[in-house]
TrEMBL record:
Organism this protein belongs to: Remersonia thermophila
Pfam families: OsmC
InterPro entries in the cross-refs: KH_dom-like_a/b, OsmC/Ohr_fam, OsmC/Ohr_hydroprdx_reductase, OsmC/Ohrsf
Signal peptide: none
Protein name in UniProt: OsmC-like protein
Coiled coil, from the record: none
Length: 176
């Protein structure tokens, strides 16, 4: 089931630079995105209007959750992982690079003094490291160009970097 056309047009009107998201992706100047969330306690069901999928978020028992679903902080790292792969696909298409399998590992260090204890401070990640192994059909020079473009164009990478977190990435080029 897709979003009603009037809803998409409404979103496009509210954002003057947005165009309807169609197969003509290269003409899209902004992608309107929205979610809805409903729940009680720490458990929330998150849905994407007009899409057939949803997911659930909970949190760790130390924060009052039942640990029955991934926590929002886990989803933030998952978003970083997936967004790099999606952006990599887009960049590879633009550069004429063939891709195979991806292996992505993300680790983060999240301070708890503000979130859990309520102390003054920054609740943001202290450090996030992403390690990516990507199968490609290019040599190291072209792979370095590919990585630079992925990191420049990935919106979730930008979100982490601009937030002030210590951000490290390690990319490995594996032959396809």
């Amino acid at each position: 089931m897709s979003a009603p056309r009037f809803l998409l047009r409404s979103l496009a009107r509210r954002q003057p630079s947005a165009r309807l998201f169609t197969t003509t992706h290269r003409r899209l100047s902004a992608l309107p995105v929205s979610i809805t969330g409903t729940g009680t306690g720490t458990l929330q069901r998150v849905a994407v209007p007009g899409k057939p999928y949803a997911f659930t978020a909970d949190t760790y028992p130390v924060l009052g959750g039942a640990d029955s679903a991934p926590s929002p902080v886990v989803y933030s790292l998952a978003a970083l992982s997936a967004c790099n792969q999606v952006t990599g696909h887009v960049v590879a298409r633009d550069l004429g690079i063939r891709l195979g399998e991806w292996e992505v590992q993300v680790e983060g260090l999240l301070p708890t003094k503000t979130l859990v204890k309520g102390e003054e401070g920054d609740p943001n990640w202290e450090k996030v490291t992403i390690k990516l192994k990507v199968q490609t059909d290019v040599g190291e020079e072209e792979f370095a160009r590919f990585v630079g473009e992925v990191e420049r164009r990935c919106p979730i990478t930008a979100l982490f970097r601009k937030s002030g977190v210590v951000y490290d990435s390690v990319w490995v080029n594996e032959k396809l």
